[in-house]
Amino acid sequence: MQRRQLLPLAAGAAAAVALPRFAWAQGAYKAEYKMSTVVPPAFAWGKGGEIFANLVRERTSGRINIKQYPGASLVQGQQDREFSAMRQGVIDVLCGAPINWSGTVRELSAFTLPFLLPDHKAYDAVIGNTALMNEYFDMVRKAGAEPLAVGETGYRQISNSKRPILKPDDLKGIKVRVVGSPMYGEIMSSMGANPTFMSWADAQPALASGAVDAQENPLEVFLAAKINTLGQKYVTKWNYSNDILLYAIAAPVWSSWTPADQKIVREAAQDAARQQITLVRKLFAEDVQAVSALGVNVHQPTPAEMQEWQVATRRTYARWKAQIQPTFIGKVEEVVAKTRKA
């Protein structure tokens, strides 16, 4: 697949602008800058964070030392608190999924609407659209962070311990673990499932004990976390949501660095994001075969079945589009529509 330039380069002057409430003068650098990731480097997401931290350390000759804290350990495993913790100065660097921060900055979860980005062709067209991503980056800055680059968390699939899920009705009565996003909860409840909000750290023992029946995550997470050993026998690869992986720096930290170091850090994030996306795509191409080899039943919906899923989530989509950022999402829809005609 020919990939476009994935990330818009922010203008140098604009890149250094921080909100007045966060601004501080450039001063002595910290001995360590704390970066939060939900998962460790065994996962593509965590690996993207590791690559970024290593590149920054190497290219600044150790002036900027970013240390990765996986498992959202800086917020006791509660990944939905990452953005607010960054605002409080607990976290300096974010390498994460904006859906986890939707309770703090709802508009940043714009890319996660069900079936908004139906495939990688649409995904690449959207994150490769300079005007669109500059607009999104402005929203990140307004929220209190300097956006650097965008990777990919991966298409989320559903697995469960009860039965094959071939159509919306098959979700009825199934207890599904979802991340702390009311929208994800509503998607599940609208089809008769019983969503349960919990961190990933809490989800694994809940699956093992049978406290919940199902979970939704990229299949690379299914493989890396060995979710098949937690009673998950059935997988449906429905590609219902794919969030970006946002690399961002707390605004006061960003403003404390020299312009030269800001440039180094931004370029390191962009290089890390490109490597991370390549890894995600490789895992995506191989995941059905790898999961099936574990004895798990994997269903890949037909086009007619996919249409049924999209219809079932249409009302939830419309409601959350109106609440999140309707004008921006409308522009995303226009970019996606052009990929359907190409």
From TrEMBL:
Signal peptide region: 1-25
Pfam families: DctP
Gene3D superfamilies: Bacterial extracellular solute-binding protein, family 7
Transmembrane segments: none
GO biological process: transmembrane transport
The entry's keywords: Signal, Transport
Keyword Metal-binding: no
NCBIfam families: TRAP_S1
Similarity annotation: Belongs to the bacterial solute-binding protein 7 family.
Name of the molecule in the record: C4-dicarboxylate ABC transporter
Species name: Ramlibacter humi
